[in-house]
């Protein structure tokens, strides 16, 4: 089985997101492009923004290049052209600006290496993806930048491939735990009640916070951010509260303060936009589940596959077959690939 088997004919826009820098995201992206070229699938590529440095300041290495075939469609910034080996034909200069110039829609006239830097907001990434489809792409791949896991958001892409690897920890079990946790967040249940979903989504769009009671009545919570607002949210939860809508990010401190303020949280469902808004590590998440905290999302993220990289730039590595087998066991039924070894 190839990665493209999970995508072809099922999705038009997918993202590749790395759990950390050097987790194997670019190798995964290049593998997808290779498989698409073999199958005659015309690819469109963009990214979730990038700084203007050609040198990776964290690892002091050259930023990874992406190899594209002739006729590949690309949305990138004017500033990346000086790093590009493939000859590009400009199809459109958009009015979207970044620190590296305007976003430009191009077509590769020759095969070769390119660097990609895309828009900075989810809204602009979605516009760019739609433009690439309009210009003739069969499939658009969004290259998710470091700590920009929001590219996995359903408002941008239909499904996500998660790249993970040894770079996360010298302890293989910790890497598996972190990866499982991320996949679990991606797979959180969606709000099933359509009326509640619409009410909550409208509040979230305004970056607001509220209580929804048994009669579907909305009671606003007057806070600007949930970061230090856990106690206020906790006091707002009443006997007839059914939902707490969180218009921003959901973090560990917020839930801890709510749990310390009231025990009524056990009968409440917390609603967030999607899993990219949750910033809680695996250990704390297990604790919150144990004490009865329930979280649902407006938009569920579809984890398509996970790719593993057993090598870390720091010089250590895992036994590739052992790492792949263990990750498959714990992530089943989600397919897991080692794109260096090849195959699933």
From TrEMBL:
UniProt superkingdom: Bacteria
The protein, known as: Uncharacterized protein
């Amino acid at each position: 089985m190839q990665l493209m088997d999970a995508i072809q004919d099922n999705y038009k826009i997918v993202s590749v997101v790395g759990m950390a820098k050097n987790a194997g995201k670019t190798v995964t992206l290049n593998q997808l492009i290779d498989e698409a070229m073999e199958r005659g699938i015309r690819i469109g590529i963009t990214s979730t923004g990038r700084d203007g440095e050609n040198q990776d300041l964290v690892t002091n290495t050259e930023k990874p290049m992406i190899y594209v075939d002739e006729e590949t469609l690309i949305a990138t910034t004017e500033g990346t052209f000086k790093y590009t080996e493939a000859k590009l034909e400009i199809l459109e200069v958009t009015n979207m600006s970044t620190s590296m110039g305007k976003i430009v829609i191009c077509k590769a006239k020759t095969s070769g290496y390119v660097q990609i830097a895309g828009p900075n907001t989810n809204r602009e990434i979605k516009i760019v993806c739609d433009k690439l489809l309009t210009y003739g792409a069969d499939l658009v791949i969004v290259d998710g930048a470091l700590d920009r896991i929001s590219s996995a958001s359903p408002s941008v892409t239909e499904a996500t491939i998660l790249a993970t690897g040894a770079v996360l920890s010298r302890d293989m079990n910790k890497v598996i735990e972190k990866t499982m946790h991320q996949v679990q967040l991606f797979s959180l249940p969606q709000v099933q009640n359509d009326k509640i979903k619409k009410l909550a989504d409208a509040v979230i769009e305004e970056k607001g916070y509220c209580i929804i009671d048994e009669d579907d009545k909305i009671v606003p919570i007057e806070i600007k951010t949930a970061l230090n607002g856990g106690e206020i949210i906790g006091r707002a939860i009443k006997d007839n509260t059914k939902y707490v809508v969180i218009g921003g990010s959901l973090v560990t401190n917020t839930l801890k303060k709510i749990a310390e303020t009231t025990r009524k949280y056990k009968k409440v469902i917390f609603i967030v936009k999607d899993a990219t808004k949750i910033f809680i590590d695996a250990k704390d998440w297990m604790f919150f589940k144990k004490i009865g905290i329930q979280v649902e999302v407006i938009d569920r993220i579809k984890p398509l596959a996970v790719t593993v990289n057993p090598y870390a730039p720091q010089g250590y590595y895992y036994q590739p077959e052992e790492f792949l087998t263990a990750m498959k066991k714990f992530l089943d039924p989600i397919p897991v690939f080692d794109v260096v070894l090849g195959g699933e």
